[in-house]
Amino acid sequence: MNTMLNPTHDPAARSWLASANQRGGDFPIQNLPFAVFRVRGTAEPFRGGVAIGDQVIDLARLSQAGCLKGLALDAAKAGAQTTLNALMAMGPAAWSALRHGLFGLLQADAGASVQQAVQACLVPQSQVEYTVPAQIGDYTDFYTSVHHATNIGKQFRPDNPLLPNYKWVPIGYHGRASSIGISGQSFARPKGQLKAPDAEVPVLAPSKRLDIELELGIFIGQGNAQGEPIEIGDAENHVFGICLLNDWSARDIQGWEYQPLGPFLSKNFASTISPWIVTLEALAPYRVPFVRAGGDPQPLPYLDSAANRAGGSLDIQLQVGLQTRRMREAGQPDAQICRTSYRHAYWTVAQMVAHHTVNGCNLQPGDLFGSGTLSGPTLDQAGALIELTQGGKNPIALPNGENRTFLEDGDAVVLRGWCEKPDAARIGFGECRGTVLPARG
Predict the structure, then answer these.
(1) What is the C-alpha to C-alpha distance for residues 188 and 151, in angstroms, rounded to an integer?
(2) Which residues neighbour 378 within 8 Å (Cβ) at sequence distance 6 or greater?
(3) DSSP of 41-87, one letter per residue?
C-alpha cells in the first residue's frame, strides 16, 4: 500500500507558482492530480494535464520541453495522449516517477531556466474544458457504506434493514460506462416505467423522485490477466487514483425494476465525475486505520491484511451542494445539504479490488469503480436525498425559502472533496457539478 510519506508530502514545501501556495486551495504542490483537457472553444486535441494552483501543466508541451528524464519522461509522454489509459497501464513506479519529477520542477528553489520552461507549459484552468479522462471499458458500482445500506433498508424492511450478506461481501453491480460524463454535465430527466403502490399497471413517465448519490470514483491502473486474482496486498498497485462521482438515481423507476436483478434504467442515464484524479500517493498523509465495530464479523482472509487494517481507509471530506434555478438566477451559490467523510466506508479500496478479481475477473486500465453512496453515521451525513428526506417525508429547507424532497428541473448539484489536517498539506479534488434538464418529449 502507498502509505509511506516522502518529500512530496512535506507540508512546508512551496512552489514558485504563487497560486499553488494559497491557503485553502485544492491544488498545492503536494497534490498534482491528473485530468484530460484542451483550451475551451478550440478544436485542438484533448491531452493529459496536471493541476498546480490555478493552472494546468500541459503534459504534451512538457514532454517536449527537455525538463524530465527517464521514466518520468516516458510517463509524461504516455499522459500526453488523448486519454490517460496508457499512463494508467504503466503502473505505480511510472506514476510516482512523474509525480516526483513534477514536484522537483515546481519547487520554489527550482532554477530560473526550469521555471521559464515549465511556465511555457502552463494553461490557466479558467480557459480550459475537460473530458472524461480515460476510455472506460467497464464500470462497477459498489455499496460500501453500511450507514447508507441501513438507512435505505429501514425504508423497505424496518425489522431487517441490513441483509445478512452485507457484512461479509463487498456488494456491487455492473453499471453503464457509456453515459459517464465530466463535471458540467447536463442531462434530461430520465423516463422509465413507474408503478404507484395502488396502481394496477405501470406507466411510462419521467421520474418524479430523481436523486443524487455522493460517491468516489476509483480508476484502475494496470490490469490483471483473466483467471489471475489480485491479492489484497497488491491491490492498490492496480489503482491509478480517485475522483468524485455523482451516480444519479431515479428512485421511482428503481423501486419497480430492481427485483430480481437490480438497477437498470434507474441508473444508466447519467453518472458525473470530477475532472481531476488524485493519486493514492498524494493521499498518503490521510490514511487512517480500517476497523470494524465490535461484534461485526472480521473480513475473510482474502479481504484482510495487516496493511489494510493499519491504513486501508482514507479520511476524505465530502460535501454536497444544491443550487436551484431560482438561486442561480439570483446569483446565490449552492447550499450545503450534506457533509461526511470516506473514512466511514465499510469496505476499503483494496478490498474492492481484491473481491472484484477473486473469481478471476480481469480488470483493464481505465476501468472505473464507484464506491456507492457514502453516508456517515448520522442522517445529516447522508449522501442521498432519499435518506436526507427519509423517503420524501421530511423536505430539506434551503436558505432562500425553497424546499426539496427530490431534484427538480434546473437543479444543479455540486460535489466537493478534500483532505485537511494540521500536520499535512490540504489536498483537494476540485468539484463535480451536474444539472437536471426537463425530460424530453
Answers:
(1) 28
(2) none
(3) T--PPPEEEEEETTEEEEHHHHTTTT---HHHHHHHHHHTSSSSHHH
Integer Cα distance of 48 and 91 in angstroms: 16
Amino acid type, 437: L
Note the pLDDT tens digit of each residue in 351-368: 999 999 999 999 999 999
Closest of 412, 418, 413 to residue 430, by C-alpha = 418
Quick one: residue 419, left, alpha or beta (phi over 0 = left, psi -120 to 50 = alpha)?
beta
Q: How far apart are CA 223 and CA 227, in angstroms?
A: 12
Residue type, position 388, single letter: L
Partners of residue 381 on adjacent β-strands: none
150 neighbors 379 (Cβ within 8 angstroms): no
Q: What structural domains and CATH numbers belong to the chain? A: 7-131 (2.30.30.230), 139-437 (3.90.850.10)
pLDDT tens column, 45-77: 999 999 999 999 999 999 999 999 999 999 999
Catalytic residues: 148
What's the grid cell of residue 210?
A: 430523481
Cα–Cα distance between 258 and 266 in angstroms, integer? 9
* Amino acid letter, residue 5: L
CB 93 within 8 A of CB 240: no
Neighbours of 123 (CB within 10 A): 16
Sheet harboring 271-273: ordered strands across? 172-174, 139-142, 368-370, 214-220, 239-246, 271-273, 180-182
Task: Determine if the peptide bond prior to 158 is cis (ω within 30°).
Answer: no
Tell me which amino acid residue 99 is: R
How do 249-250 and 210-211 pair as beta strands? antiparallel
| Alpha-carbon gap, residue 113 to 405, rounded angstroms | 57
Q: What is the pLDDT of residues 243-302, one digit of tens each?
A: 999 999 999 999 999 888 889 999 999 999 999 999 999 999 999 999 998 899 999 999
DSSP letter, residue 247: -
Q: Are 216 and 352 in contact (CB under 8 A)?
A: no
Q: Are 142 and 352 in contact (CB under 8 A)?
A: yes
Q: Which of 342, 31, 372, 340 is nearest to 169 (CA)?
A: 372
pTM: 0.97
